[in-house]
Amino acid sequence: MVLCYLNFNLYVVQQANISLLIKLSSFRDLWIFNCTEGCQFNIVTQGFKINHLSKIILTSSHINNISGLLGLLSSLNLIGRTKSLHLYAPVDLMYYLDLGKKYSRTNFNYVIYLHILKTGLIINHYGYRIYAFCTKSGFDFTIIGPEQYGTFFLDKARCNYLAPGPLYGKLKKGMSFLLPDGFIIDGVMLTSPNLLGSHVSCLTSNFYCRRVIENVTNSNLVLLL
């Protein structure tokens, strides 16, 4: 999983007006938190394609977080996008999109799914999970990556006269097999312990409170949005 601030130069000056891009490992899909002014230009500058966007998550309906949204949606329409797009945002965004389309007299040729944010699990995709937590100023988020399988002990498997093949992959996942003679092959004994997935906390405020401390206790990385 690749994390990238799209407007890092602004982040040095102020802790606001921030867009965060997430590139999933082994997948072309891009997810972004907040769509600030110039967001699509920053995406292209970083070497990504805006047509690979699949999810846009808005921490709040503040103008700093949505100022580039209508422009980005219009650009996706102009390049002939047909794949659906998922938006995760407070309920107010529904009215903003309706007024924006009415004012600009624009209709999109692709489907936009609007998911209203609330505390709890909001995304469970490709093994990645994103949890949202309601705050006074918007929403905080926790991103949990998929669990990584442990290292398969190849020498140990050969010592047990196990021939290379699809069986190795299943044993690496911890599966067990019962042979005709009653002997049990336990994949757990042939691999190292699984590694926990990455744990990233995305906060919209740097003020300490009990909820923030509980969220970041087990985090590998803490980011400010």
UniProtKB/TrEMBL annotation:
Keyword Plastid: yes
One term of GO molecular function: 3'-tRNA processing endoribonuclease activity
Keywords: Plastid
Superkingdom of source: Eukaryota
Protein name: Ribonuclease Z
Organism: Laurencia snackeyi
Upper lineage: Eukaryota, Rhodophyta, Florideophyceae, Rhodymeniophycidae, Ceramiales
